[in-house]
Design a protein that fits this description.
The structure is a single chain. Helices cover 71% and strands 7% of the residues. With 212 residues, it is mainly α. Strands 1-2-3 form a three-stranded antiparallel sheet. The two termini are 21 Å apart.
């Protein structure tokens, strides 16, 4: 009888230890994600403040579309220049990336960070990763990565193209850069696959709880 009880006792200890380690790790990840979210939010607010305080007043007094070189050696970019030539509103960089596309990607990264923080919070609270809400959150993160890989830069380029057309430029000038993010597409597919595995783990976890 003693030999039969030992494995059960060890199994219980191992399970409790695993839960404790999981909560400790998710607590670290949660606070790391919170710091990242705050940094992204502050960066976004800083960009908006610069636009409102420095660039937009110059553009309100008259502006035109020009090819300017913001930094030596990086090549020209398309920008809207107002009365102050030192503060242009960059639209299309020398590598083809648009400012609006980068802004949308930052907003998407902020949304992903908030979702990941919620995922870590749920795991830390419940002490188990195989939870229905965790599965839904993980699937949502995967979908956000897929959206970022396919639609965000394309949407930013389309909006930029319309702005360029309004200032006498060419709509197609905004579509010279890379419009898709293969790495985000791949990451989104992997995360969706992991979410499916988590859903299977949730079913097994539920069956295990019912047996106990």
């Amino acid at each position: 009888m003693i030999r039969w009880n030992v494995p059960k006792s060890n199994e219980a200890i191992d399970r409790e230890q695993a839960i404790a380690d999981l909560r400790k790790l998710t607590r670290i990840c949660k606070w790391t994600t919170i710091c990242t979210t705050v940094a992204l939010a502050l960066g976004l607010l800083a960009v908006i403040a610069i636009e409102l305080l420095l660039i937009l007043p110059s553009l309100s007094q008259g502006s035109c579309l020009q090819s300017v070189e913001l930094q030596a050696g990086e090549g020209p970019c398309l920008a809207i220049v107002g009365t102050n030539a030192q503060t242009p509103l960059m639209l299309v960089a020398h590598d083809g990336h648009t400012a609006i596309g980068s802004l949308l990607m930052t907003c998407l990264a902020l949304t992903i960070a908030l979702s990941v923080r919620r995922l870590f919070f749920n795991i830390e609270k419940e002490g188990r990763p195989f939870d229905l809400e965790c599965n839904q959150t993980l699937r949502r993160v995967g979908h956000l990565f897929l959206i970022g890989g396919v639609a965000v830069r394309l949407l930013g380029a389309a909006i930029t193209g319309m702005i360029l057309s309004g200032f006498g430029g060419s709509f197609t000038d905004a579509f010279v850069g890379q419009l898709f993010e293969p790495s985000m597409l791949f990451a989104g597919l992997i995360i969706c696959l992991i979410a499916s595995i988590f859903r299977y783990g949730y079913i097994l976890q539920k069956q295990d709880d019912e047996l106990l």
